[in-house]
Amino acid sequence: MRTVPPALPFAIAAMLLVSALLVTAVAWPQAALAVLPAAVALLLAMLFYEAPLLAVLLLAGSYGLALDVQLELLAGGGGSAGAVGSAVVKTIPFGVAAMLCLRYGVARGINWPFLAFALMAVASLVVLPIGRVSTPAEMVRSFIGSAAPFVLAFAAAPRSLWSALCKAVVAVPLISAAGGLLTGLVGVYPAFDLNWRFQGLHSPPFLAGFCTTAIFAATLEYLRGFRTRWLVLGGAALAVLLATQARAPLIVVALFLLMVVLLSDRHTFPLKRKVDLAMGGLLPALLLLGPLLVFAADRLLGGGDVNLSGRDVIWPYFVEAIERRPVFGYGLGAGKLIVDPEDPQIRLIRSNAAHNEYLRLAVDGGIVGAGLVFGAIIAWVWGGTRRAAPADRLVLRCALLGALIHAAFDNTLIATTSVIQYGWFAAALARARLERREAGPGGALRDALRGRSA
Question: What is the pTM of this model?
Answer without folding.
Answer: 0.86
